[in-house]
Amino acid sequence: MATLNYLSGYAPELQEKIQQMIEQDSLRAFLQKKHPGTHNIRSDAALRDYTLALKNRFMKKSAPLSKVAYDNKIHVIHGALGTHSYVARVQGGKLKSKNEIRIGSVFKKAPEAFLNMIVVHELAHLKEKGHNKAFYKLCEHMLPDYHQREFEMRLYLTQLELSGPDI
């Protein structure tokens, strides 16, 4: 029986269904059918362009981003899939802030739908620091099927954990 680390917050009935899919070896096929192929956003520059396009479409008035990059240490160190950081510095007599978004390198070879979901999630943190109702409402504004994609991304990560990077 596989440990469903990424699905622990979901209903036991749903976890049982996923467990059955794992035991029947049908989770991989489900994911491949639903999300065939991967994206071409492999470099930090391409990720920055992708992120800024989303930011400019949905969050024009939010603070600028100083850095957007893939980070191969995020999953190991933070137990997260992406991070946002906000650094405030005194420059002269003014307080300057910099926003950074780092995306786990596991998303370099993931389906585009999952990269999109994690970028939307981190962009939402520019306005809402916590995971509250306003945060999720903003995520849904940028990506109407946000919650479904988050769930499927958790299935994808579960499959990666079980079988390695070849999905």
TrEMBL record:
Domain of life: Bacteria
Listed InterPro entries: UTP_pyrophosphatase-like, YgjP-like_metallopeptidase
Gene3D superfamilies: Metalloproteases ('zincins'), catalytic domain
Limits of the YgjP-like metallopeptidase domain: 93-153
Pfam families: YgjP-like
Protein name, per record: YgjP-like metallopeptidase domain-containing protein
Species this chain originates from: Pontiella sulfatireligans
